[in-house]
Specification:
About 45% of the residues lie in helices and about 15% in strands. The protein has about 450 residues and is α/β, with parallel strands linked by helices.
Length: about 450
């Protein structure tokens, strides 16, 4: 095992809504509690990190880690438009200072998927006004906390909406094909007098409950009108239009401008969800288009950022027809991702060809109940990172997803990504061997 230099940022990551609990003013909380929800279960007190952050930070420090990425919940800071909660600002100040007292560099994300309900009522992430709203929030919170920080991620996985739009498109195409196949089979069976059971479920599992979302679409419309003032609220993880995609980039740039005006030396970037895009013979054009949608077209908006947050979990393989199924017999994670830790090194190398700033692995991990596989995943992924660094790539850190087994959005608590297990009855923390392993790289 090769250890990283002392200045390399090695740690773990979380998101406020997934760990804090009781984020009652944001859109996710509202959607979780709807009758016709696509969430498997509500977050409620999640893993109560709002009250237990000191314990979690100490566990990281004891394992040897030196960095912690967490998000500030916008809806806590600004629960109503233009109304700020100083007590919540002070809470995050205490989290930051607790990190420093324990030798961890705090890396703050300003928006990790969840948004204030009032923002969604104004049109959410398809509304031009969101650019100014986000910049105002960024200015406010960085005015208060910027002197305590070195690294800020403005927006988490800024490209997520386009990925969901593509997934939704594929889902609808499959559903239509299934319907046509069922109709043909029914006509054939009717003619022959035979009957067949339907074994096609058409699920697409990518951290969202797309099947339930589609089933509930019409039923949820009235509830959406009541809560958000629209039948189709444009939350951050809605299928994004090209205009909405541009709004997100403009929001990032506007926030960065405000941050730099306050603290020019503060390192600012965003994070992107990036697959290791591969092609078999004939699939080169499809693979190129996907990479362009996922990464390349963002370069004009981020080329002068201080760093890029690279977030990778697996690969995607394309042929002439599009995205291929996972290779036969491959190991799948709880999220139905192919187990492929080599993807991270591949993505870092490809990104470095087009983005010339610092690279920061802000998420990489695996949902599994078998921690030995998590350990294997970490070893292979970090070997890839070290190879990239030895080849001159400017990788400044690696943050594993996730610190804790937590609330995986519409999947609820069923996905275990954590380096630390949590008994949600008692909220007792139990560090896994993978936490110790990750810390041993320092």
């Amino acid at each position: 095992m090769k250890k990283f230099d002392s200045d390399f940022l090695l740690g773990a990551a979380t998101a406020a809504h997934q760990v804090e609990g009781n984020n009652i003013h944001n859109d996710c909380w509202a959607m979780e509690h709807m009758k016709y929800t696509s969430y498997k279960e509500p977050s409620l007190d999640a893993v109560d990190q709002y009250n237990r952050y000191e314990e979690d930070i100490r566990l990281m420090a004891q394992a040897g880690l030196n960095a912690y990425r967490f998000s500030i919940e916008w809806a806590r800071i600004e629960p109503e438009e233009g109304v700020y909660d100083e007590a919540e600002v002070d809470h995050y100040r205490k989290v930051i200072r607790c990190c420093k007292e324990n030798g961890l560099e705090p890396i703050v994300t300003l928006m990790h998927f969840s948004s204030p309900v009032w923002l969604i009522r104004k049109g959410g992430w398809e509304a031009d006004s969101t650019v100014e709203d986000f910049a105002r929030y960024a200015k406010y919170i960085i005015t208060k906390l910027g002197s305590e920080l070195k690294y800020v991620c403005t927006i988490n996985e800024a490209n997520m909406g386009l990925q969901i739009a593509e997934i939704s498109k594929r889902y609808m195409q499959k559903m239509m094909a299934d319907m046509a196949a069922k109709k043909a089979a029914a006509e054939k069976n009717a003619a022959s007098g035979e009957s067949k059971a339907d074994d096609s479920d058409g699920k697409v599992q990518v951290g969202i409950n797309l099947e339930q979302l589609m089933k509930n679409r019409e039923l949820a419309a009235a509830e959406n009108m009541e809560v958000f003032g629209t039948r189709e609220p444009q939350v951050f993880t809605s299928a994004r239009t090209t205009h909405g995609d541009e709004i997100i980039m403009l929001a990032h740039q506007a926030a960065k401008k405000e941050i730099k005006a306050l603290f020019p030396g503060l390192q600012v970037g965003l994070t992107l969800s990036l697959h290791d895009i591969q092609a078999v013979d004939g699939g080169e054009a499809n693979a190129w288009k996907t990479w362009s949608d996922e990464f390349t077209h963002y370069i004009p908006y981020i080329f002068d950022d201080d760093f890029l947050g690279v977030q990778n979990y697996t690969r995607s393989i394309y042929d002439e027809n599009g995205l291929m199924p996972d290779p036969e017999g491959t190991e799948l994670t709880q999220m139905d991702y192919e187990y492929y830790p080599e993807a991270l090194g591949h993505v870092l190398r490809r990104v470095a060809n087009e983005f010339k700033g610092k690279l920061f692995v802000t998420e990489n991990g695996i949902a599994t109940a078998d921690d030995s596989r998590r350990c294997d995943f970490i070893n292979t992924a970090l070997e890839g990172v070290q190879d990239c660094m030895e080849n001159g790539l400017p990788v400044i850190g690696y943050l594993h997803w996730s610190l804790l087994d937590n609330f995986e959005w519409q999947k609820g608590f069923s996905m275990t990504f954590g380096l630390i297990a949590v008994d949600r009855t008692t909220q007792k923390r139990t560090p896994k061997e993978s936490l110790k392993l990750l810390g041993s790289y320092r």
